[in-house]
Request: fold
Amino acid sequence: MFGGFSLLLLIGAILCFIAYGITHARYHEDVPNDNQVLVIRNGEKKVMKSDDLVVGDIIEVNDGDRIPGFLATVMICLTLTAKRLAKKNCLVKNLEAVQTLGSTSIICADKIGTLTQNRMTIAHMWFDNRIVEADTGEYQQNATFDKNAPGWLALARCAILCNRADFKQDPENLAQPVLQRQCYGNESEAALLKCVELSTSNVIKFREINRKVCEIPFNSTNKYQVSIHEVHTENKSEVDSHPYLLVMKGAPEQILERCS
Reply:
């Protein structure tokens, strides 16, 4: 029994070698050696040598055809494109996204800084029941609002005190123009800080006079920030006569809900 089984194994092995030899021989016979390709040119299919290809020709690749180095070429192109995007601060995590990005016309983003430089500037303000266009220039030469108006003074006071952003206390940084100074804190509060500094030029001194007592930091649940400050001023008006001042900023619906 063992001898008969060994004979069957031997016959099977011989048949396998024969089948492999036939397949290998036929494969090399079927592969053309004339370096010709099937090309679509001007809407017509033509068979021509690869040396005769011109720009605009479309090569038709059938099932089983293999283009030497095709995958490597595609990967190299995608990698080089991803590196060029990285130099422009656009990081690509998946190389397949590079090809998709090339055919994209509109990108919807939900966050400042995703596709921008994360630099914010105050452009419009609302006080005294009107919308005021802010001057985004360094020297405030085109400011169209009264900087002594009570509405602006109240708004500026809130923007200074209810704000955790601050300029980096570096002499070289403080010597820079206001809009170019580096700040601690998030960009939205830094934009408020720079806007008020451009108009008043006394943010640091004003904070020292009106010292912060306590605060409720901004969070995504409350959507507002509250801070309480000691008030020291020579103006004994009805608002400023109290020893403490509460200022608040946040989402409009949260602020208006708490207004009288």
The helical segments are 2-30, 70-87, 96-102, 150-161, 171-174, 187-200, 203-209, 252-257.
